[in-house]
Amino acid sequence: MSGEVGHFEIPADDTSRARKFYSSTFGWKMTEMPGMDYTMVSTGAADENGMPKAPGYIGGGIGKRGAELAHPVVTVIVDDINHAEKLIEKNGGKVIRKKQPIGDGSMGWTAYFKDSEGNIVGLYQLGTQMAGQ
After folding, report:
1. Residues of the chain under the 50 pLDDT cut
2. In 3D, which of 53, 52, 64, 50 has the Cα closest to residue 19?
């Protein structure tokens, strides 16, 4: 699974307005995350964990516009964020937000980096809940 694009993020100044726009325009299913100004987005059929059921479908999120989320971001799934961060730095990129848990970490971990061209890209490592353990 490592290296696949598996998630996107859309920044919003008004997350409520953005949820309404994407839900009404494309029929995307929205799931607000308690205690966070973040909404998980299902763009197709998903299982009970929000993971895609069909090949080629990518889900995403809508979050408050900020430093890392100033523009749309694609997120790469990796087996080990710590290892990926080392490779990013070795190959000319820069980690701009180190590995941090999503909630208690059971959903996984995220990080952000700038690639060699200055683009901000996300990283995601599965947590035990998402891995079905």
Report:
1. 132-133
2. 64
